[in-house]
Structure formats: structure tokens, C-alpha cells
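For reference, the entry.
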Amino acid sequence: MLTKRFFKTKDEAEVTFAFSHPEAKKVQLVAEFTDWEPVTMKFNKKERTFKSKYRLPTDKQFHFRYLIDGELWDNDHKADAYVTNSFGTQNSVVNTQKTAL
């Protein structure tokens, strides 16, 4: 799930990436803005979700996916869009346009 917060005085959006998977021990966010390097998400015990926050430039679109336990790929089921990638699967897309709320 994606949550976005926009700032009045900055050209960036704070995006919270939240993902839950019942058996996952570790979830990593893999995205354009991480240079496609896996970044381990923090587990929130109370909500039983893995979370990461990033500040991203506004008026852009970024592709990303989740890597579960270093083996299984999954998309954000509440992403703004999905785009086919070069591996024949799909990437999730987060849109940081202020009008995209």
C-alpha cells in the first residue's frame, strides 16, 4: 500500500511503502530510486507490515517491486499503475504528481 504526503514548500513527496505477507521473514523494496538495489524494509509488529519511507521528487513516476525472503517477487496491490518490465513480469508504479491524489 502506498501513502503519500505532499509539502507546500518543497518539490517532493514523502511516500510510505507498506507491504504485508503472512509468511515473510524479510521484505526488501527494489526500485528505480534505490538504483534497483534491494533495501530491507522495517517490520511493524503492531500492524504486521513491512514499511519504508522515501522522499521523492514531485511530478514523476517511479517503478518498484517487493522482494520477499530474497526469492519471491511481488507487486504493490494498491500501486498507482503497473508496467511490463524486460523480464516479462510487471513493475508497480508510484506517481508523485500532486494531482494524482
